[in-house]
Amino acid sequence: MIIGVPKEIKNNEFRVSVTPSGVHAYVSAGHQVIVERSAGVGSGISDYDYIKAGATIIDKADELWQKADLIQKVKEPIEVEYKRMRKGQILYTYLHLAANKACTQAIMDSGATAIAYETVEVDGALPLLAPMSEVAGRMSIQVGAAALQASAGGAGVLLAGVPGVRSGKVVVIGGGVVGVAAATIAHGMRADVTVMDLDLKRLAQVDQIFAGNVKTLASSEYEIEKEVVNADLVIGAVLVHGAKAPKLVSNALVKKMKPGCVLVDVAIDQGGCFEDSKPTTHQVPTYKVHDAIFYCVANMPGAVPATSTYALANATIGYGLALASKGWQRAIADDAGLALGLNVHEGKILYAAVAKAHNL
Does 96 qualify as catalytic in the annotation? Predict the structure, then answer.
């Protein structure tokens, strides 16, 4: 099979889907890998690195998409790429289709077979989403702390505080991989941290992870309001597998929050969990709602590609090899978790949450 690795062209996206190690694995399994010129430069990987591993460099994106049987990407296709997809081709990438009807329709129209990293499951966990959730969760505190600085328009709060001055209050809504990663960094910075979740068993696990040093709270509309109005930094870390994120912080609630507070919506790929959330880019990452600052970058890990490219590639290569070596039909027949990654095939949506999101 011919594996195509295009250069990511989403705004300020510096990751690449396959590393030289992955190229070597594909080639060793008998496949051909074609990589678009300069695809890995943003992650510190040269064309020569790919050539040494056994890849062929392709100058034009259109040619790469035309030749490849399997396109492995990082992010969903954007408008200029829609026409490049075709029937019989496997698209293997993050898709987040429930929040993107235009992309969903484009994939349906193309006839391609689309397998989404974020809906592949193993025992209820999401192994291909987890590494980027770890990165985004940790980054959320980093970017939130920067946005809190007065020079950035924030309230001028230092999350760590100092002796005699209170620490910043961080509220993390969602106790999954993103939430725990965020809480880990916030706690490490000596912030006052509260993690909220509907799952009491998960909250017990969070309590154990942090040895009681991070507060846990059963999530409800009432408790969210009580916590958020006093927060300096709110992290939206809610995920419903493959579906649109629920809206948990309303515009009316933001109006009650402290001036200069910051809300980071890590769920923005799935539509966001704050009412006023709208996708932003690393180029212009924030905007104001009332007196609060919103950070809603849809590809947060793209800003740290030297870390995130390798974390993602390590997780995706095993499934990629299965798809390439067995063909997608046999691969998903042999692996029920991978089968859940199948979102679209020849114009039909095959993932219920995506169909429900778009009333299709």
Answer: yes
